[in-house]
Design goal:
Length: 297
């Protein structure tokens, strides 16, 4: 009966267009009783994917021309509140819950913390904090649920979409906040006060040791918040080397277990929070530095 009532509800899920102001990205609010999701409409284009600054790691090269189609992206990382609505409606068990542990920073390394989950990551959080301790598989499951709820295709961003968005449609912002001093939740003086050995952004204090409520800092020019820092974000792609040829809407699918994450987190300063920086983790990884945001078509 619960499933039947959910299906009935899904059929009346509504999409409300909020409309845009000139020069502002068009915003939509996908409204359901289960999950409100604010997304920004991002017109596609061709851009140069990779380390256009020539200052990053080897895996950010070669730079190549990539075309991405139009897409919409969640303006925030998925929150604890949104993820909880998913698990409450479906009974979904995260990998951390079913296996009984997640990775937590203990001051010197990322170690298995038994009992750590997105509900109890070991630090205070509200429904507005980004969900953490979710694996790639957990994130994909959330997307599948939200696709059903909204009647839209909801999925993880491809690595190319993520970078295109973080760089304000393929321009040259070095970070989610632009090119200057930080305006986001990165490894800062407040984190160093707790963990003196942490590599931080010297002289910068954002006031958050671990995660911050989403949207605590200003957005980029296309309306996206926390593209650098707060939580690292799962992408749809398997990790692989870049190639030089031009591509259209690339998505790397491989048999191995390593998936791409982008943007760095509260745990990173330079160089991890750069918009072109790439990270890979096993798809079963879950820890207090990893979350995700979604793309909607
Ligand atoms: Ca911080
Ligand atoms: Ca982020």
């Amino acid at each position: 009966m619960r499933v039947l009532s959910l299906l009935c509800f899904l059929s009346v899920a509504v999409v409300i267009a909020v409309g845009g102001v000139s020069k502002e990205p068009k915003k939509e609010l996908l409204v359901t009783e289960l999950a409100d999701l604010s997304v920004a409409s991002i017109p596609g284009s061709t851009f140069r994917l990779g380390d256009v600054f020539n200052e990053g790691a080897a895996d950010e090269l070669p730079v190549s021309f990539v075309t991405v189609s139009d897409f919409s992206m969640g303006v925030h990382e998925i929150t604890v509140g949104q993820f909880t609505r998913f698990t409450e409606q479906t009974g979904y068990m995260t990998d951390a819950e079913s296996e009984g542990w997640a990775f937590v920073w203990d001051g010197t390394s990322w170690s298995k913390e038994y009992g750590a989950t997105y509900r109890k990551p070991g630090f205070p959080q509200t429904d507005q904090h980004p969900v953490v301790c979710v694996s790639w598989r957990d994130a994909v499951a959330f997307c599948g649920w939200l696709s059903g709820v909204t009647g839209r295709t909801v999925r993880l961003p491809t690595e190319a979409e993520w970078e295109f968005a973080a760089r304000e449609r393929g321009m040259r912002p070095r970070y989610g906040w632009g090119n200057g001093v930080p305006n986001g939740n990165v490894a800062d003086e407040s984190a160093a006060a707790r963990w003196p050995n942490l590599k931080i952004w010297n002289g910068y204090n954002d006031g958050f040791v671990i995660t911050a409520p989403v949207g605590s800092f200003h957005s980029n020019s296309i309306g996206l918040f926390d593209m650098s820092g707060n939580v690292m974000e799962w992408c749809a792609d398997s990790y692989g080397p870049y190639t030089a040829e031009q591509k259209n809407d690339p998505l790397v699918r491989k048999e191995d277990q390593f998936k791409v994450l982008r943007g760095g987190s509260w745990f990173n300063a330079e160089p991890g929070v750069r918009t072109t920086a790439r990270t890979r983790l096993n798809q079963s990884y879950r820890g207090t530095r990893v979350g995700f945001r979604v793309v909607v078509r």
